[in-house]
UniProtKB/TrEMBL annotation, chain A:
It comes from the Bacteria. GO terms for cellular component: endomembrane system; plasma membrane. It is found in: Cell inner membrane; Endomembrane system. This is Ion-translocating oxidoreductase complex subunit E. It is a multi-pass membrane protein. GO terms for biological process: electron transport chain. It comes from Imhoffiella purpurea. The gene is rnfE.
TrEMBL record, chain B:
It is a multi-pass membrane protein. It comes from the Bacteria. Part of a membrane-bound complex that couples electron transfer with translocation of ions across the membrane. InterPro entries: NqrB/RnfD (IPR004338), RnfD_bac (IPR011303). Keywords: Cell inner membrane, Cell membrane, Electron transport, Flavoprotein, FMN, Membrane, Phosphoprotein, Translocase, Transmembrane, Transmembrane helix, Transport. Its EC number is 7.-.-.-. This is Ion-translocating oxidoreductase complex subunit D. The chain crosses the membrane at residues 20-39, 45-63, 70-89, 95-113, 125-144, 211-228, 235-254, 260-279, 291-309. It comes from Imhoffiella purpurea. HAMAP family: RsxD_RnfD. Its cofactor is FMN. The complex is composed of six subunits: RnfA, RnfB, RnfC, RnfD, RnfE and RnfG.
């Protein structure tokens, strides 16, 4: 039963093993459009996380009241309300960031990652679990968006966290990293093909890490068995 | 007199990848020599660098995949990719751009999809597009053809430009580079000049730009050699050039002052080279005969459309890549009927 899975299991699944962007390949539209820099990716990721946590919790709260026939419109309504909320908050406090991300904040409404979690997880689990799931999936998405943004920004412009002050205030200025003026960036990294190529490489990296971890844990599991049985000395020849 | 009688199958010789690739390289020689004649040593230097980078990249990836690099290097496909790449890029491209392009072609476009025979896109063209989109300035720095140039770069001067980007004393980029005929034509047409006015410039020869038209003619010779050796069939080159010609003639007859003469389209840019050497890549092109005609004809139309209304001056690379992705679907719908199956008879 899935319900018996602990918080750690839910968290690990959302953040890594079932990462909605690297494994589910969901939410590609914001992924392609907003990861032109690490700052944009981080901003988009945080906005998505906020919506995801709130919508997961709300959907989980109303899961026994909503008739299954109309659940999808209700989910969309819930998500749209929170997206509007996030949009207004961004307009009030991060106006420049809002101008950069623009339309894609409103488009979080139709992000299939969020409605996917509402349908697949929040509508079947209690509030606390839904909250943890929302947070984990959101952070997983933020991780991917930020690293892909960093990759594209570094290759394309030779900077990292350029304009971070838009999101993090004046302290963000110290985060900005420049590769130097001589660096000639590959423009393609900033353009949409760069996002596809970068995402492909990130998926490959994740698979590589997963494989290595599996091999390591298999080796660790194999060792004590060998030690316990104490194989006899092999006969010569 | 005794004649040797062999039993069937009567196969004259075994077709192997390396033999085909060797023929392609041979067929490229006249065009490459012509380009060297008009644009100087840079092309050969770039080509040498590209071949070395390609072989190193291919071996590195194959070793990382746990395979022996020798057969793949011996089949010369990486060399052909490198040579086609060097022909497409400007002859004074900085060495690190050649390295980037070749790495992109061999590692990302070819080997990540499984290596020789598995890549859906033409590696040389993908690398060209990658560089053109990423570094538009360096990729449009074409030299002036030798009969129009005031200064002819010597071997050492070309080498220095490629290796550390420093120009010879007293020269500027403007002095040694000039717009390609396609660039020139597009720029002047955008200024609302008529073709009669545009063609008064000394840049123009009989059909296309001076120098350029002859390079295309020498590549045509190589292409005919490939046809004669039956390395390629006529379907793709003929359908591609024919559809390009049809489009160009149609618009030219409608308004000869704002649309270039049809032969201009054939003998400019990479049309001939693309038709015989690039679109015919056996891995990425369509494989059925009807499919090859559709494939080639669509490339021709796309070349005309992108050249005339698109954002980039030449279009062969974009058109070929677009049709590469469509090739499996074309093949699917143009399967020849297997004898005894389907049809109306039974």
């Amino acid at each position: 039963m899935k319900a018996t899975k602990g918080y750690a299991g839910i968290f690990g699944e959302g953040l890594w093993s079932n990462n909605q962007m690297l494994v589910g390949l969901l939410g590609l539209c914001p992924l392609l459009a907003t990861t032109t820099s690490a700052t944009n990716g981080l901003g988009m990721g945080l906005a998505t996380t906020a919506v995801l946590v709130c919508s997961n919790a709300t959907v989980s709260l109303v899961r026994n009241l909503v008739r299954p026939e109309i659940r999808i419109p209700v989910f969309v309504l819930v998500i749209a309300s929170f997206v509007t909320l996030v949009e207004l908050v961004m307009q009030a406090f991060f106006y420049e960031m809002y101008l950069v991300l623009g339309l894609f904040i409103s488009l979080i409404v139709v992000n299939c990652m969020i409605i996917g979690r509402a349908e697949a997880f929040a509508s079947k689990h209690s509030v606390d679990r839904a909250l943890v799931d929302g947070l984990a999936v959101g952070l997983g998405a933020t991780l991917v968006l930020t690293s892909l943004g960093a990759l594209r920004e570094l290759v394309g412009q030779g900077t990292l966290f350029n304009q971070a002050e838009l999101l993090l205030g004046e302290a963000g200025r110290h985060l900005t990293f420049h590769l130097g003026d001589d660096y000639q960036g590959a423009l393609i990294a900033i353009l949409p093909p760069g996002a596809f190529i970068g995402l492909g490489l990130m998926i490959a990296l994740k698979n590589l890490i997963d494989k290595a971890v599996k091999r390591l844990s298999a080796a660790r599991r194999a060792k004590p068995v060998q030690a316990a049985t104490q194989p006899p000395e092999p006969a010569a020849g | 007199m005794k004649t040797f009688i062999a039993s069937s199958p009567h196969v004259a010789r075994v077709n192997r990848v390396d033999r085909i690739m060797l023929q392609v390289l041979l067929a490229l020689i006249p065009g490459v020599l012509a380009m060297t004649w008009y644009f100087g040593w840079g092309l050969l230097i770039n080509m040498g660098l590209a071949i070395v980078f390609a072989l190193l990249a291919e071996s590195a990836v194959l070793l990382a995949r746990g395979r022996s690099p020798l057969p793949a290097i011996g089949d010369l496909s990486a060399v052909v990719t490198a040579v086609l790449f060097a022909i497409s890029v400007p002859p004074i491209l900085p060495w690190w751009l050649t390295l980037l392009g070749i790495l992109f072609a061999i590692v990302l476009v070819k080997q990540l999809y499984g290596g020789m025979g598995y890549n859906p896109f033409n590696p040389a063209m993908a690398a060209y597009v990658f560089l053109l989109v990423s570094y538009p300035v360096a990729m449009t720095n074409w030299l002036t053809p030798s009969m129009l140039a005031e200064h002819h770069l010597s071997f050492m001067e070309s080498l220095r430009i490629i290796l550390d980007g420093s120009l010879p004393q007293g020269l500027t980029w403007d002095a040694i580079t000039s717009a390609t005929p396609l660039d020139e034509m597009r720029g002047k047409l955008d200024q609302n000049l008529t073709l009669d006015q545009i063609r008064q410039s000394p840049l123009w020869g009989n059909f296309g730009g001076r120098g350029w038209e002859w390079i295309a003619a020498w590549f045509l010779l190589g292409g005919l050699y490939l046809l004669w050796r039956r390395i390629i069939t006529w379907h793709i080159p003929v359908s591609m050039l024919a559809s390009l010609l049809v489009c160009a003639t149609l618009f030219w007859t409608l308004d000869p002052q704002t649309h270039p003469f049809p032969a201009f389209h054939l003998f400019s840019g990479a049309a001939i080279l693309g038709a015989f050497f690039i679109a015919t890549d056996p891995v990425t092109a369509s494989t059925t005969q009807r499919g090859q005609i559709i494939f080639g004809a669509t490339i021709g139309v796309l070349v005309y459309v992108i050249r005339t209304w698109g954002g980039y001056p030449d279009a062969v690379a974009f058109a070929v890549l677009l049709m590469n992705i469509a090739a499996p679907m074309i093949d699917h719908y143009t399967q020849p009927r297997v004898f005894g199956h389907g049809g109306k008879g039974i």
